Structure formats: structure tokens, C-alpha cells
Input
Amino acid sequence: MNKVAFKWLLVAYVLAIAVVGGLLFQYFQPKENKQVKTLDFMPTYDFALKPTSQKCDNVSGDVNLVLITDANYMDFTRVAMKSAIETKCSNSQYNFYVMTLDVSDSDISALKALKTKDVKIEVLPQGEVDLFYVRDTHVSKTSLLKYYIAKVLPDLDKVLYVDSDILVLHDLHSIFNTDITGKYLAAVKDPSWFFQNMHVVELNLDYRGFYFNSGVMLMNLKKIREDNLLAKLEDYTNNNFRTYMDQDALNVVVENDVLLLPVEANTMNFFFEHNDMKTLGNFYDRNWKSYEDVFANATIVHFASSKKPLGPRADRFHFFRMLQEAWYEVYSSLPPL
Output
């Protein structure tokens, strides 16, 4: 080997030792030092969410609420109901109508145990819906029971339907008292439209300009019965291959007879995990400064994806941890099933 080649080989060898040494030095640094560096630029969400204060002056009267559950969602259903009861104004009367599928007698007793002097709970067992069904990652066939709410509750003209995977942070009168005369329902627009999700685009809703989430809906049962919307929903479901089942069917069948609710009526955590706050703030016409702003102002927080709060705690540097802690606070106050 000549002197020039030997020189460059020696240089390469020294550089290799320096790189390896540097990597080893970083690896064996004490973990607490790394943690301090992380905390310098990352927020922590390992604390209780503090909802904005609510005014209960002149808030009174009934709110009719519908939930649908099966044995797999009993814990979520009880948390949804308990959180609503704990945050309602003292003069509010809540009437819960819980449509159930394949739940035990002990499950029914657990639901009825939430009853108080100003909280009525009626459990309505249902049979499985005989409609074409496409299995999605987190939409169960039980969700198709939404179609039958107007039929199951013939004496009610208006109800607030909520999915079981929600957390209520404020009294629900502001939503329930929304005027939906001449509309089938009111709901919050879903950012699936904003993200140009292909299955949403295929629904041909360009003329309306939005796609709504069916996890929270103020429903005009009187109009739904008068126009026999049930038959249209059944027909659409049996003849169209759609991913989000009831949500897709409802979006198409109600056409323009839907009113948009403010995002606080159904604040979905899922989309904030996939896009930045400013973009979503523009979409919902909000000027949020932090995730605390987003969720503390919500009336209903909706865990609208396959990722649910029940399970291992999230990383405390992720805002989901804050929502999970709020959910667990209610969950831990309930007796086990």
C-alpha cells in the first residue's frame, strides 16, 4: 500500500471511531437529561381538562336523549350517560332512552342505576337489524338501529341522539333547543369532506358542500315519520356498498334537509391527530390557540375512531392523554359491571 492510500485509510478509521464514539456517548446519557431536553419544547397533557364555565340561569326543561349500545359498549354507554348527568344544570330534566342489543339483565340494571330524581332512564331492548352490512374497523351493525329511533319512540317529536363513545362536558339544552323545523336533523360537519376522503367524494354531495358526522344528531322524529325516511334508509343500505354504513346513508338520504351544528356539539379528537389545529380551525371557523381551547369549550367530546380511551394510558406528551384522563375520571366513579 502506498503512502497516500495509507493516509486516507487512517483518516477514515479515525472518523469511524469518532462517529461510533459519539453515538455511544448519546446512548449512555442519563435518561433524566434527555427528558429535560424534551420538556423544553413539548407540552404535557398529564393533567385534568378544565371545561369552560357554563351559565345555568334560565336553563330548565326536558332533554330527550337516545343512545344505542350492545354488550361490547356498556362501559362507554355508562360513561356517556354519567358525564351528561354530572354536567347538566340543576333544573334540567334528562330523559334517556337506551336502545340495547344482546345485553344481560345485569347490564340493564347497571344502566337503570344511573337514574335520579331529575334523570329518567328507559331501556328498550331491540332485535338485530336485517339489513345489508359491510364490516368497518369500528362501525358495528348495532349502529344501524339509528334508523329506527322514530319508530321505537312514536310519542316523541325530537331527540338528541349521541354515540356511546362520547364525553359530555356541558349542559345539553343549547343543542337540544336548536330549531330544526323543516329539517330531518342537525349535525356537525365531518372533516372527512375536507380531507377529500375518496369514499365521501363518491357520495356525490358536491351540491351540498359538506358531509356530517352521525355520532351526534338532533333528530326531528315527527318529520322523519311523516316522510317515511326509514324506508329510504333501508333501501339505500341494502343497495349500496358503503364503508361508513349509517353515516353514509343518512348523509345521502336527508339531502338538503339538514342543519349544521357548531363544532362544540360534536368535537371529534380523531382529526386533530391527523391535521394541524390551524387548518381545522379554519375549517370550523375557530381561532384555537391550544388543544385545551379546543376541548374545554366542547359540549360533547367524541372519540370518533377505533382509538378509544379505555385501555393503556396515552403518552403524556399527546393531547389524547388529557381527554383520556377526563374519561377515566368518570369511568372510575362507576361500579364494575
Summary: The first strand starts at residue 61 and ends at 70. The domain at 61-331 is CATH 3.90.550.10 (Spore Coat Polysaccharide Biosynthesis Protein SpsA; Chain A). The radius of gyration is 25 Å. The chain has one domain: 61-331.
